[in-house]
Recover the amino acids of this structure.
């Protein structure tokens, strides 16, 4: 049995559905895929994540158990679309994002001397757009306003940034990837040309860095927060090697020559059995509400043991890039040793 066959037949319906969709190419409307979606809805992961329905008194952005991150996580696992039980979570997220204080300091800031660079954590809007589309619970009145907000707040270089310091003149990779993904999905599903253009500009911003390296000197990007970008993160991915490549694959940009170095790096992380590990996380399993806690079991960090979720994503990326399925050990150098181009 091949690794792909094993993933497609995994006992966890989340893994099986992900593999059959991304690797086997099974149509969403097939009986088998519909059964898997229903199984995801009644899975242990879904039941764990839905405990957020009991969190009425907590901030919607509470890491990582609040409604905002719960909707993101449910979309990530392929939770069945159109479940009306999710509407209270959506309501809380949208009320929070459209409260008057949301676009005022300290949440948002426009410096008089830099009006073209609004300081805004655009990943919030990006996640809300992306999750609602995948979960089939789009607030048709207010999600288009989130799209407009992202387009309006996009920086001249194509990205976004929440850094309030006046010295910040360049967009943040962490605050750009997630809005890019949300805008791109909105453009594909709704035919929004303005969102497509904004997503294209954001993709160019990241590709100009070959995803992981600074443009000006070729040195590796070292964010102030969010973890090392050259490692595989999971489950909450602000910006990492695999997450960036997944988005480029979704955009149809994975064969861009500027993706070659990160693809080499990804291939070098493949384990002997063909799987890929989680190398870094800012998430911990928790049975109660606590900072950066999650009720669901995502597999944890284990550098010598493959994680099925990230393995499916990695194989999908490599397939879309036209790379062979064989393990290519030692095909990439570390980012720190990569020469500037």
């Amino acid at each position: 049995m091949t690794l792909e066959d094993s993933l497609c037949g995994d006992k966890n319906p989340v893994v099986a559905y992900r593999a059959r969709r991304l690797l086997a190419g099974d149509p969403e409307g097939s009986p088998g895929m519909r059964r898997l979606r229903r199984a995801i809805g009644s899975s242990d992961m879904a039941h764990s994540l839905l405990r957020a329905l009991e969190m009425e008194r907590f901030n919607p952005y509470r890491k990582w158990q609040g409604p905002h991150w719960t909707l993101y996580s449910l979309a990530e696992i392929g939770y069945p679309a159109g479940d009306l039980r999710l509407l209270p979570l959506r309501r809380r997220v949208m009320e929070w994002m459209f409260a008057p204080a949301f676009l005022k300091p300290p949440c948002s800031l426009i410096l008089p001397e830099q009006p073209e660079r609004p300081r805004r954590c655009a990943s919030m809007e990006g996640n809300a757009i992306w999750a609602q589309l995948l979960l089939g619970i789009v607030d048709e009145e207010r999600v288009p306003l989130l799209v407009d907000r992202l387009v309006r707040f996009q920086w001249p270089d194509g990205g976004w940034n929440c850094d309030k310091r006046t010295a910040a003149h360049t967009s943040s990779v962490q605050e750009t990837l997630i809005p890019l993904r949300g805008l791109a999905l909105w453009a594909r599903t709704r035919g929004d040309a303005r969102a497509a253009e904004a997503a294209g500009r954001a993709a160019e911003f990241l590709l100009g860095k070959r995803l992981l390296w600074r443009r000006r000197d070729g040195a590796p990007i070292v964010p102030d927060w969010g973890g090392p970008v050259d490692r595989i993160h999971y489950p909450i991915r602000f910006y990492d090697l695999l997450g960036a490549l997944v988005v480029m694959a979704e955009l149809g940009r994975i064969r861009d020559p500027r993706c070659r170095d990160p693809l080499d790096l990804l291939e070098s992380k493949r384990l002997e059995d063909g799987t890929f590990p989680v190398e870094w996380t800012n998430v911990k399993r928790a049975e109660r509400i606590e900072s950066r806690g999650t009720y669901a079991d995502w597999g944890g960090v284990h550098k010598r043991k493959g994680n099925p979720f990230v393995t499916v994503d990695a194989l999908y990326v490599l397939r879309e890039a036209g790379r062979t399925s064989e393990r290519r050990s030692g095909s990439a150098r570390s980012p720190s040793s990569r020469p500037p181009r």
In short: Residues 327-337 have pLDDT under 50 and may be disordered. Strands lie at 108-109, 119-120, 284-285, 293-294. The longest helix spans residues 174-190. The longest strand covers residues 108-109.
